[in-house]
Amino acid sequence: MANLLNAAVRVASVLQGVTRSVAIRQETQAQQNLAVHQANILRTNALFMDRAAEDAMVRGNISAREAEVATADTISQQRVGLAERGIVVDQDSAADLVADTAGVGALDAFTILANAEREVEEIRFRASQEREEADLALATGQAKTRAGRTNQLTNFLATAGTVAERWNMFKKPKDA
Questions:
Q1: What is the third-level CATH fold of 2-171?
Q2: pLDDT confidence tier of residue 175, bands split at 50, 70 and 90
Q3: Beta carbons within 8 Å of 89's beta carbon, 6+ residues apart
Q4: pTM reported for the whole predicted model
Q5: Measured in Å, how far apart are the chain's first and last C-alpha atoms?
Protein backbone atom coordinates (compact mmCIF):
# COMPACT_ATOMS: atom_id res chain seq x y z
CA MET A 1 0.00 0.00 0.00
CA ALA A 2 2.85 2.37 0.83
CA ASN A 3 4.50 1.66 -2.54
CA LEU A 4 1.26 2.45 -4.34
CA LEU A 5 0.94 5.71 -2.39
CA ASN A 6 4.57 6.57 -3.17
CA ALA A 7 4.03 5.98 -6.88
CA ALA A 8 0.81 8.03 -6.85
CA VAL A 9 2.59 10.96 -5.19
CA ARG A 10 5.37 10.87 -7.77
CA VAL A 11 2.92 10.64 -10.67
CA ALA A 12 0.89 13.53 -9.23
CA SER A 13 4.05 15.63 -8.97
CA VAL A 14 4.91 14.91 -12.59
CA LEU A 15 1.35 15.63 -13.75
CA GLN A 16 1.31 18.89 -11.81
CA GLY A 17 4.55 19.96 -13.49
CA VAL A 18 3.35 18.94 -16.96
CA THR A 19 0.02 20.72 -16.45
CA ARG A 20 1.75 23.87 -15.26
CA SER A 21 4.13 23.70 -18.21
CA VAL A 22 1.26 23.33 -20.69
CA ALA A 23 -0.56 26.27 -19.07
CA ILE A 24 2.57 28.42 -19.31
CA ARG A 25 2.97 27.46 -22.97
CA GLN A 26 -0.66 28.29 -23.77
CA GLU A 27 -0.45 31.64 -22.00
CA THR A 28 2.78 32.44 -23.82
CA GLN A 29 1.26 31.54 -27.18
CA ALA A 30 -1.83 33.63 -26.44
CA GLN A 31 0.34 36.64 -25.57
CA GLN A 32 2.35 36.21 -28.76
CA ASN A 33 -0.84 35.89 -30.85
CA LEU A 34 -2.25 39.01 -29.21
CA ALA A 35 0.94 40.94 -29.94
CA VAL A 36 0.86 39.91 -33.61
CA HIS A 37 -2.83 40.82 -33.83
CA GLN A 38 -2.22 44.25 -32.28
CA ALA A 39 0.73 44.86 -34.59
CA ASN A 40 -1.38 43.96 -37.62
CA ILE A 41 -4.13 46.36 -36.55
CA LEU A 42 -1.62 49.16 -35.95
CA ARG A 43 0.05 48.60 -39.34
CA THR A 44 -3.35 48.61 -41.05
CA ASN A 45 -4.18 51.87 -39.29
CA ALA A 46 -0.89 53.31 -40.56
CA LEU A 47 -1.76 52.28 -44.13
CA PHE A 48 -5.12 54.02 -43.89
CA MET A 49 -3.38 57.09 -42.50
CA ASP A 50 -0.96 57.07 -45.44
CA ARG A 51 -3.94 57.05 -47.78
CA ALA A 52 -5.59 59.84 -45.81
CA ALA A 53 -2.40 61.90 -46.12
CA GLU A 54 -2.35 61.41 -49.89
CA ASP A 55 -6.03 62.35 -50.04
CA ALA A 56 -5.44 65.48 -47.95
CA MET A 57 -2.72 66.61 -50.35
CA VAL A 58 -4.93 66.00 -53.40
CA ARG A 59 -7.80 67.91 -51.75
CA GLY A 60 -5.41 70.74 -50.89
CA ASN A 61 -4.18 70.98 -54.46
CA ILE A 62 -7.73 70.98 -55.80
CA SER A 63 -8.84 73.63 -53.30
CA ALA A 64 -5.82 75.80 -54.10
CA ARG A 65 -6.57 75.51 -57.82
CA GLU A 66 -10.21 76.41 -57.16
CA ALA A 67 -9.06 79.48 -55.20
CA GLU A 68 -6.83 80.50 -58.13
CA VAL A 69 -9.77 80.13 -60.55
CA ALA A 70 -12.04 82.11 -58.22
CA THR A 71 -9.40 84.85 -58.01
CA ALA A 72 -9.10 84.95 -61.80
CA ASP A 73 -12.91 85.21 -62.04
CA THR A 74 -12.94 88.05 -59.51
CA ILE A 75 -10.20 89.90 -61.40
CA SER A 76 -12.13 89.45 -64.65
CA GLN A 77 -15.30 90.81 -63.04
CA GLN A 78 -13.36 93.77 -61.61
CA ARG A 79 -11.82 94.58 -64.98
CA VAL A 80 -15.20 94.36 -66.73
CA GLY A 81 -16.83 96.53 -64.06
CA LEU A 82 -14.08 99.13 -64.27
CA ALA A 83 -14.14 99.13 -68.06
CA GLU A 84 -17.95 99.60 -68.05
CA ARG A 85 -17.45 102.78 -66.03
CA GLY A 86 -14.89 104.00 -68.51
CA ILE A 87 -11.90 103.50 -66.21
CA VAL A 88 -8.63 102.38 -67.74
CA VAL A 89 -7.97 99.10 -65.95
CA ASP A 90 -4.20 98.97 -66.41
CA GLN A 91 -3.43 102.34 -64.82
CA ASP A 92 -3.38 103.99 -61.44
CA SER A 93 -5.72 102.77 -58.70
CA ALA A 94 -7.58 100.38 -61.03
CA ALA A 95 -4.33 98.55 -61.71
CA ASP A 96 -3.59 98.56 -57.99
CA LEU A 97 -7.03 97.07 -57.27
CA VAL A 98 -6.47 94.25 -59.76
CA ALA A 99 -2.94 93.64 -58.43
CA ASP A 100 -4.21 93.59 -54.83
CA THR A 101 -6.91 91.10 -55.76
CA ALA A 102 -4.33 88.91 -57.48
CA GLY A 103 -2.07 89.12 -54.42
CA VAL A 104 -4.89 88.20 -52.02
CA GLY A 105 -5.90 85.33 -54.30
CA ALA A 106 -2.34 84.02 -54.42
CA LEU A 107 -2.14 84.29 -50.62
CA ASP A 108 -5.41 82.33 -50.31
CA ALA A 109 -4.07 79.56 -52.57
CA PHE A 110 -0.78 79.49 -50.65
CA THR A 111 -2.63 79.28 -47.31
CA ILE A 112 -4.77 76.41 -48.57
CA LEU A 113 -1.67 74.50 -49.70
CA ALA A 114 0.18 75.22 -46.46
CA ASN A 115 -2.78 73.97 -44.42
CA ALA A 116 -2.97 70.82 -46.55
CA GLU A 117 0.77 70.19 -46.08
CA ARG A 118 0.39 70.66 -42.31
CA GLU A 119 -2.47 68.18 -42.28
CA VAL A 120 -0.42 65.72 -44.33
CA GLU A 121 2.53 65.99 -41.95
CA GLU A 122 0.29 65.46 -38.92
CA ILE A 123 -1.29 62.37 -40.47
CA ARG A 124 2.10 60.96 -41.50
CA PHE A 125 3.42 61.55 -37.98
CA ARG A 126 0.50 59.62 -36.51
CA ALA A 127 1.07 56.85 -39.05
CA SER A 128 4.73 56.59 -38.01
CA GLN A 129 3.62 56.38 -34.38
CA GLU A 130 1.29 53.51 -35.29
CA ARG A 131 4.18 51.70 -36.96
CA GLU A 132 6.37 52.23 -33.89
CA GLU A 133 3.57 50.89 -31.68
CA ALA A 134 3.34 47.85 -33.97
CA ASP A 135 7.07 47.22 -33.63
CA LEU A 136 6.79 47.60 -29.86
CA ALA A 137 3.84 45.17 -29.71
CA LEU A 138 5.85 42.56 -31.62
CA ALA A 139 8.92 43.09 -29.43
CA THR A 140 6.77 42.77 -26.31
CA GLY A 141 5.25 39.56 -27.64
CA GLN A 142 8.69 38.15 -28.35
CA ALA A 143 9.91 39.11 -24.87
CA LYS A 144 6.88 37.44 -23.31
CA THR A 145 7.56 34.33 -25.40
CA ARG A 146 11.14 34.20 -24.12
CA ALA A 147 9.93 34.73 -20.56
CA GLY A 148 7.38 31.95 -21.01
CA ARG A 149 10.07 29.56 -22.21
CA THR A 150 12.19 30.47 -19.20
CA ASN A 151 9.19 29.83 -16.94
CA GLN A 152 8.65 26.46 -18.61
CA LEU A 153 12.27 25.51 -18.01
CA THR A 154 12.08 26.71 -14.41
CA ASN A 155 8.88 24.71 -13.93
CA PHE A 156 10.51 21.62 -15.44
CA LEU A 157 13.51 21.92 -13.14
CA ALA A 158 11.29 22.50 -10.09
CA THR A 159 9.16 19.49 -11.00
CA ALA A 160 12.24 17.34 -11.51
CA GLY A 161 13.56 18.47 -8.13
CA THR A 162 10.24 17.71 -6.43
CA VAL A 163 10.02 14.25 -8.01
CA ALA A 164 13.62 13.47 -7.07
CA GLU A 165 13.03 14.65 -3.50
CA ARG A 166 9.91 12.51 -3.14
CA TRP A 167 11.64 9.56 -4.74
CA ASN A 168 14.41 9.78 -2.19
CA MET A 169 11.98 10.35 0.66
CA PHE A 170 10.06 7.16 -0.09
CA LYS A 171 13.14 5.17 -1.06
CA LYS A 172 14.88 5.66 2.30
CA PRO A 173 14.46 2.73 4.66
CA LYS A 174 12.41 3.55 7.72
CA ASP A 175 14.21 3.24 11.02
CA ALA A 176 12.59 0.70 13.25
A1: Helix Hairpins (1.10.287)
A2: low
A3: 78, 79, 82, 83, 95, 98
A4: 0.71
A5: 18
